[in-house]
Amino acid sequence: MAEASQLFKEFKIQSVSEFFRRNAAMLGYTGKVRSLTTLVHEAVTNALDACEEAGIPPYVRVEIEELGSEHYRVVIEDNGPGIPEKYISHVFGKMLAGTKAHRNIQSRGQQGLGISGAVMFAQITSGKATRVVTSTGGEIVEAWVKIDVDRNEGKIIKKERHPNPKGWRGTRIELEVKNVRYIRSRQGVYWYLKLTAIANPHAHIELVEPDGRLIVFPRSSEEIPDPPVEMKPHPRGVLTDDVYRMAKKTRRATVKRFLVGEFSRISDKKVDELIEYIAALRLIKTEKDHKVREQLYERLVKGEVKAVLRSFRGYTKVLKNVARIMEKPPEKLSWHEAEEIVTAFKYMKFLAPPTHGLRPIGEENITKGLRGILKPEFVTAVTRPPKVYSGGIPFQVEVGIAYGGEIPSGFDVFRYANRVPLLFDAGSCVTTIAARSIEWKRYKVDDPDRTPLILMVNVISVHVPYTGTGKQSIANVEEIYNEIRLAIMDAARRLQTYLSGKHRRLHQAKRKKTFQRYVPEIAKALSVLTGEPEERVSEYFISFIENHFSAKEGTAEVSENA
Amino acid sequence: MPKGRAIHREKPKERFSYDPRKVLARLEEYGRRILQDIKSGKNPHFDIPMRGLSNVYFDESKGLIRMGEKLSRRYFLNVAHARKFMQTLIIMAYVKRLVSERKHASLREAYYANKHTIPGTKENTFEDQSESDPIIEDLERMMGVLREEMHITADRRGYIYGDIVIRDGEDEFNASRLGMGGWAVPGTVEHIQFPEINVDYALVVETAAMADRLIEEKFPKKENALIIATQGQASRGVRRLIHRLHYEEGLPIIVFTDGDPYGWYIYSTIKQGSINLAYLSDKLATPEARFVGMTMGDIRRYGLENVTEKLKGIPPNKKGGPTGDYKRIIEEMNYPWFQNREWQGQLKMALRMGVRIEQQALANKSLEFVAKRYLPEKINNGDLLP
After folding, report:
1. Distance from CA of residue A85 to its chain's centroid?
2. How many domains does the structure of chain A reveal?
3. Is residue A64 classed as helix, strand or coil in its secondary structure?
4. Which of A239-248, A271-280, B12-21, B109-118 is predicted least confidently?
5. Is there a single domain that holds both residue A95 and residue A116?
6. Which of the listed residues B126, B153, B180 is the one where a domain comes to its end?
7. Given B27, B77, B120, which is nearest A548 (Cβ)?
8. A154 lies in a domain?
9. Among A481, B131, B201, B332, which lies 20 to 30 A Cα-Cα from A449?
């Protein structure tokens, strides 16, 4: 027993860091390159979110300083609102708290650990505290933050105050990390920031690489996106656990009020309907004949709930029992009852969920972002209207296409979920699968591998369905797949129009040249035949060609506008 | 000259008519028309009679293969035409220089003389002789003048031997006093004149070997004949010479080929013209020509059964047939100009017997047999096929 309690004690002491280590893959801290990217991602995300919430056009500077072999100092500075002194330990120190993980809101954060995870990662690899310099406009506060793994709390181990004569405002975080590597690969920090800059044209992003090189992704749009709003969950998009947990937390008086108040698309009338469905489901369970049961379920799907109820004797009693649940205080709702409610939701019909909380980048800003960073010859973007997958989860798809210009040859897909670039697991991602399914030839892209073409896909949702724990690849959900395809095809059609126009212009120019290059020979021969001076004959032919093609261009433009 | 002969010289039907000014006038006229079009903003073009079987027909009354009326229009402002349009003008200008300078050029010379890189491009005016030759043919058809009249000549092939006097430029000579080799027929015979003709007819012989045999046997002298060796398919020069000798000098034309589909085709070309040169039939073909042999009838008549050779290919009644010679014979049977009793009989006989007979098979009898007996007998008796 003594041994066991000893073990238990040690286990407890190490719990938070153990949790971190064990779930490193899920949290994004695997691999030397990826860990560094995740670290930067957490800090940059915080910076962008803070700026957007405060309505400030973001300025984000990332510096990577090499201190030794696989040993770096990472500095992330923003011009955000700054962090009030008393919140510093909370923001940087508290694991699994204060994040948006429990809220029904579109968010950049994916891991639920946020910047505290980065602090933790720095701490366990280098043993150093994270230096935070921040100001809300007044004094500058400099703090060294560590995480107290025993208490799962942030701890400020040293704090200094400095005067702020220039009125600087913002936050600067310095993390010292080991066991990571900076490479300019497609999974590295450079690439991450480049893709982030494309999806956030309102942000100015800078990177100082370990060799001192400064890379600037300038701001290309002045429009700061509105912060996303929380949306009430849709009945079709919730699990039993959600309902159970929400019921425990709510301040509503009854289950009925709780359902109407905390979910979207549930009215008093819908609750009455819910009672009928739950009652019907209970009654169907009592039916012994397997075939009859199946038939009854089918009728329920068709909405014949009243008829199903009537086919059972004494159904009113069951109805009354169920109705009683709805009058209970919500905290008394049992797991079983919550489960019954969620099952009934699956049979019921609801209005589609509200989509006002989704924040697409927008066609104009995608265009600006692609144009600003990639310097292409042609850009187009499509933002599809919001749709719903698996019955109740709203999502929206955006696609951008950039062609030619400074883009190198080859087809590339830039994948995003809620504006965050996805750098790993491209093969299994629905965006890649959808992009591959497109018959590019139809859109005048004859050989995609040799075409300077970049396709950007952004999937926005309150719950992006990721595959696996890495959250770097979106699951192949049919509704999302179809939307991505439609968006790509829409954008590709515009590319096609551009390319065929380009081809036509090239073709015309080539045709014109064909004729022009024969003129000297023709003029010489005709001069021999007719005695007319060669130059004169040549002039006749050249002006004839000019007239012909200028007339033609005119008509071509007209037909294009028509 | 033996009496009672079926063959004798007739009165001329055409006159020597070569005039270089005609060609020059035509060239200038076409040039002016193009210039006129471009000045008035029209897309200039040439109208060129189409070549090929689709634009060819058989003129029954004249007995000639003739070119139809179909034209193809070659525009300047057409990506597919522009290059050929330029090439046409280049060749026209070249012909104008040739004719006015009284020079002659071979087809190959015409090609090389006009081949050069177009300034400012990597493109040549002509990449290959196969580009310049058709342009020259196009000009012939378009302007209705012979290539020879444009001073562009083909390789010479064929020769003549016999007691006629020829004037070629400044030279004048008798074609029976040039040795056993005779006089090689040049690519262009337009300018050739015949001050003196002492023969009764012209015998056109397919193979050089047979022509040499006849010359050695003194056949031309004894029979008062002019030997014309075609050396295979008759060249344009030879065909034009045959035409001129017949129409301008009234010489009867008798053709002597192998007894096989190829030999009969040679005869057909001399007589009716060819599909390729249908537009020149008026100037090249000699519908009055007649055929002396070899015929299928000769085999039995002269006892040549042992020296025949089997036709190549599969006969029509066998599986997979007809192919090879058989196929060729059946095609010839369908020619409009072979639609007569004699030729249908010959061709049917060839199919039935499945054999061919060469001119030189006559040597089986004796070397002088052809000159002493075969030809005199058939020709003097008028034993000729139409």
Report:
1. 31
2. 4
3. strand
4. B12-21
5. yes
6. B153
7. B77
8. yes
9. A481
Query: Which of A526, A535, A543, A545 is the best mutation test for B, with the most CBs of B within 10 A?
Result: A526
Are A271 and A195 members of one domain?
no
Give me the DSSP letters along B26-56: HHHHHHHHHHHHHHTT---EEEEEPPSGGGE
What pLDDT, on the 0 to 100 scale, is given for residue A5?
61
Give me the DSSP letters along B219-243.
HHHHHTEEEEE--SSPPHHHHHHHH
Domain-ending residue, one of B113, B138, B153: B153
DSSP letter, residue B277: T
Quick one: pLDDT at residue B32?
93
Please indicate, yes or no, whether residues A453 and A538 belong to a single structural domain of this protein.
no
Residue A281 lies inside a defined structural domain of this protein? yes
Residue B279 distance to chain A (closest CA, Å): 24
Chain A residues close to B121, C-beta within 8 Å: 517
> Same structural domain for residues A265 and A336?
yes
Q: Are residues A261 and A213 in the same domain?
A: no
Residues B38, A540: C-beta atoms closer than 8 Å: yes
Domain membership of residue B341 (yes or no) is yes
Confidence of residue A562 (pLDDT cuts 50, 70, 90): very low
- Check B18, B75, B112, B262 and give the catalytic one: B112
Domain that holds residue B92: 20-153
Q: For testing the chain B interface, which of A521, A536, A537 should be mutated: the one with the most B CBs within 10 Å? A: A521
Which are the contacts of A76, defined by CB distance < 8 A and separation ≥ 6? A40, A43, A44, A47, A60, A61, A62, A63, A172, A173
B120 burial type by CB count under 10 A (0-12 exposed, 13-18 middle, 19+ buried): exposed
pTM of the complete model? 0.57
Through-space distance between the first and last CA atoms of chain B, rounded to whole angstroms: 24
Closest Cβ–Cβ partner in A514, A517, A544 for B38: A544
Contacts of B122 in chain A (CB under 8 A): none
Q: Classify residue A353: in a domain, yes or no.
A: no
| Residues of chain B contacting residue A526, judged by C-beta atoms under 8 Å apart | 31, 34-35, 89, 93
Q: Residue B86 and residue A525: Cβ atoms within 8 Å?
A: yes
pLDDT at B124 over 60: yes
The domain spanning residue A408 has which CATH number?
Answer: 3.30.230.10
Q: Which of residues 468-527 of A touch B (CB under 8 A)?
A: 511, 514-515, 517-518, 520-522, 524-526
User: Per the CB < 8 Å rule, is B31 touching A515?
Assistant: no
B236-292, pLDDT tens digit by residue?
A: 889 999 999 999 999 999 999 999 999 999 999 999 888 878 888 888 899 999 999
Residue A544: its chain B contacts at CB < 8 A?
A: 38, 41, 43, 77
Residue B14 resides in a domain = no
Q: Is the pLDDT of residue A561 over 50?
A: no
In this complex, which of B30, B34, B90 lies closest to A521 when CB atoms are compared?
B90
Do A487 and A420 belong to one domain? yes
Domain boundary among A467, A496, A525: A496
Question: In this structure, is residue B12 part of a structural domain?
Answer: no
Provide the domain count of chain B.
2
Tell whether B105 and B59 lie within a shared domain: yes
Tell whether A228 is covered by a domain. Answer: no
The pLDDT tens digits of the residues spanning A316-338 come to: 999 999 999 999 999 999 999 99
In terms of domains, do B63 and B103 share one?
Answer: yes
Length of chain A: 562
CATH number at residue A141: 3.30.565.10
Beta strands in A364-515 (DSSP E): 378-383, 387-389, 393-403, 410-417, 420-422, 452-461
Q: How far does Cα A541 stand from its chain's mean position? A: 60
Of B28, B118, B125, the CB nearest to A529: B28
Q: Is there a cis peptide before residue B322, judged by omega within 30 degrees of 0?
A: yes
How far apart are alpha carbons A35 and A25 in whole angstroms? Answer: 10
Identify whether residues B117 and B187 lie together within a single domain.
Answer: no
Domain with A453, as residue range(s), is: 363-496
d(CA B156, CA B339): 33
Contact between chains at A545 and B77 (C-beta distance less than 8 A): yes
Domain assignment present for B46: yes
